[in-house]
Structures are given as structure tokens and as C-alpha cells.
Amino acid sequence: xxxxxxxxxxxxxxxxxxxxxxxxxxxxxxxxxxxxxxxxxxxxxxxxxxxxxxxxxxxxxxxxxxxxxxxxxxxxxxxxxxxxxxxxxxxxxxxxxxxxxxxxxxxxxxxxxxxxxxxxxxxxxxxxxxxxxxxxxxxxxxxxxxxxxxxxxxxxxxxxxxxxxxxxxxxxxxxxxxxxxxxxxxxxxxxxxxxxxxxxxxxxxxxxxxxxxxxxxxxxx
Length: 221
Description:
With 221 residues, the chain is of the alpha+beta class. The chain has helices at 3-12, 16-19, 21-26, 40-85, 89-101, 126-133, 195-212; strands spanning 28-30, 37-39, 108-113, 139-142, 161-168, 174-182. Helix content is 48%, strand content 15%. The strands form 2 sheets. It has a 4-stranded antiparallel beta sheet with strand order 3-6-5-4, with helices on both faces. A two-stranded antiparallel sheet has the order 1-2. A hairpin with a 6-residue loop joins strand 1 (28-30) and strand 2 (37-39). Helix 4 (40-85) packs antiparallel against helix 5 (89-101) and helix 4 runs parallel beside helix 7 (195-212).
């Protein structure tokens, strides 16, 4: 009889060990750690302990993620409060740069808007406007070959990753681009979750429209 047949029989007839309790008591299995013979009861205990350790590790990981999300949520809240308090463009821009560079530890930040009366209009090409308008959500990935990397001047040559966040009005028209960049290749990697980046983009969009006092129109393609 094959091992598979024995396993299938025991699975289909759980009452077997009720009738042959002595067999169950005498059965031994090799300890996976020491190789010595142990009883089935000990084997079950080892298995349960391994499962507990696995669950504890997963729980610790979830707690870590939860704490990290709480910390990020607190930073986003502080940014939102500061944006609400800002009453002019200069203060608004200073708030965005200082919070992203400070609380969020983003080493390089650049902000540009168009189709609005603003001091942030320089160095925005039609190519960038069309690119930003086509973004459905923040784009994270390598900084190489991204036109907006030129906004960082001499630092551009050292940047390895960036997040590009489109700024939109209430009608969905794109009127700006918020760019965060880093010398670390894995800071803004392509698979990075963008939930908080989207929220930051939404807040910055609403705040900038409020202080600039204009409703942008979508750029022509």
C-alpha cells in the first residue's frame, strides 16, 4: 500500500484512532530540529508553535504598518491645517515646500502652475502640460528622462527617483504639477502606493486655487 493510500484512508476514516488508541500513543515522528523521535502530540505542539510565531510576525508587521500610517496621517493633517491658514501665494508655497521637505523628509520639491496668475509659471513647456494633464494619478519612478527633473537645477544630475503629482481643479482640468525627488532610487519606486500623494495633491490644488483666485482651463493638446 502506498503512502498516499494510507494518508487517504486515515483522512477518510478519522475514527480509526478511536478504535486503535494504542497505535496513536506509540507512534513517533522525527523532530524537524533535532531529528530525535517525538510523539504525535509533541509534533502538534511544535506545529502550533510555528504557526503562532508566524502569526506573531504578521501581527508585528501589521502594527508597524499601522503606526507608519498613523504618523503619515498626522503629517498630512498638519499640512492641511497649514494650507488652510495660508492667505497668500507666497505663504502657501512656503508651507508646501517646508512641510514636504521637513515633516516628510523629501529632499527636493518643485511646484509649477499654468493658466493662472502666479509667480510659478516659469520653466513649464507645453510638453510638460500635456504630460501632467494625462496623469490619472501621481506617477512614481526613475527621474531619468523626465522633463520636470530640469526644474531642480544643479541637483538634477544626482536625482534617481521622483513622484509627479498633477494639480487639478474641481472640474478635473490640470493646472499644475507638484514634483518630489530624491537621490535614492527606491524612495519613489514605481509600485509605491499613491494614496497619500493623491491627498496631498488634492489639498495643494484646492489651496492654490483659493489664494490665486482663478479657475484654470485645460491646456490644449
